[in-house]
Amino acid sequence: MDVRVHGSVPAGPFLGARDLFEHQYDVEKPVHVRVREDPDERTWAGHYDDRHVLNISRRAATSVMARELALHEYAHMARYEGDHVSHTMGLSEVLFLALPGRRVERRVLQQCEQLANHAKDIYADDITLDVAPTDKLLTFLESQLAAAVAERPPADTEPAGGYRLTAAADPELTAVNAAFALALLERHDAVPADHRIYEFADLADADAPGVDVAWFKERFRTLADDPDESAHRHALVDLVRAYVDAHETTTGPAAD
Questions:
Q1: Which domain of life, per UniProt (predicted)?
Q2: Measuring CA to CA, which residue among 58, 42, 69 is closest to residue 6?
Q3: With b meaning 16 or more CB within 10 Å and e meaning fewer, what string describes 176-212?
Q4: What is the count of structural domains for the chain?
Q5: In the prediction, which pLDDT does 134 show?
Q6: 138-148 pLDDT per residue, tens
Q7: Residue 234 shares a structural domain with residue 151
Q8: Same domain, 166 and 220
Q9: pLDDT of residue 162
Q10: 91 exposed, middle or buried (CB, 10 Å; 0-12, 13-18, 19+)?
Q11: Cα-flanking dihedrals φ and ψ of residue 167, to 5°?
Q12: Does residue 127 contact residue 17 with C-beta atoms inside 8 Å?
């Protein structure tokens, strides 16, 4: 892997993540790490014909999670290069199939994108957690979910990176985010049954009675390892439909 770090941050976490990643996986195109000054900038990967770009805030790039965030984005790049359906399927067709004739608030439609992003993260982290320890991820997800339940974005911690669990969401989305966090951890046997993250998930569940956290958790946890387009489309349709059903439909733009 050819990793090039642009910006005045230590290259060690990104090169260390590369070395760990290369034990079992590879990314063919060069990876350019671009450091953003906005401390709230989400860590995300851009894919281009000749390269991938890992966009990351300076705060995140110099945090204790820098290596793990880099690993997570390298995994997204590997999934993209491998044409994994979770990283190639668009959301428009899913919305059309899930919500025929329904009118849905614009913000709810926008939040549906996070369901597809969670599915992408599940498949990326099937790679990440195959090469890296799980303890820091567990601590990270717990802290993010605790902040979300408390409805107070953590002012002095790094942004959430590829995992959207922070407190800007409404209760329904926070509950789905809790389901995702538990699903990811349980999928990799990375959380004990008595861990405190379950308490935060219960609080998120109670705040959103229309969302069945257990159902969403099971759907994310049991996503097929290598689904075809039809199977993955069906999984996303079910997730979107259930999430929209958790909200009262109001006047707004038609889903299609």
A1: Archaea
A2: 58
A3: bbbbbbbbbbbbbebbeeeeebeebbebbbebbeebb
A4: 2
A5: 93
A6: 999 999 999 88
A7: yes
A8: yes
A9: 56
A10: middle
A11: -80, 5
A12: no
Query: What's phi and psi for 5, nearest 5 deg?
Result: -95, 120
Instruction: Tell me the pairing of strands 52-57 and 44-47.
Output: antiparallel
Same domain, 24 and 150: no
Residue among 162, 157, 188, 159 nearest 177 (CA): 162
Three-class DSSP category at 26: coil
Q: Are residues 18 and 130 in the same domain?
A: no
Mean pLDDT of the chain: 89
Rounded CA gap, 21 and 132, in Å?
A: 8
Alpha carbon 137 to its chain's center: 12
Strands (E), the chain: 3-6, 31-36, 44-47, 52-57
Q: What SS3 class is residue 1?
A: coil
For 77-95, the pLDDT digits (tens) are 999 999 999 999 999 999 9
Band (pLDDT 50/70/90 cuts) for residue 155 is very low
Determine, yes or no, domain membership for 218.
yes
pLDDT in tens, 90-131: 999 999 999 998 889 998 999 999 999 999 999 999 999 999
φ, ψ at 64 (rounded to 5°): -70, -15
Q: Are 116 and 223 in contact, with CB atoms under 8 Å apart? A: no
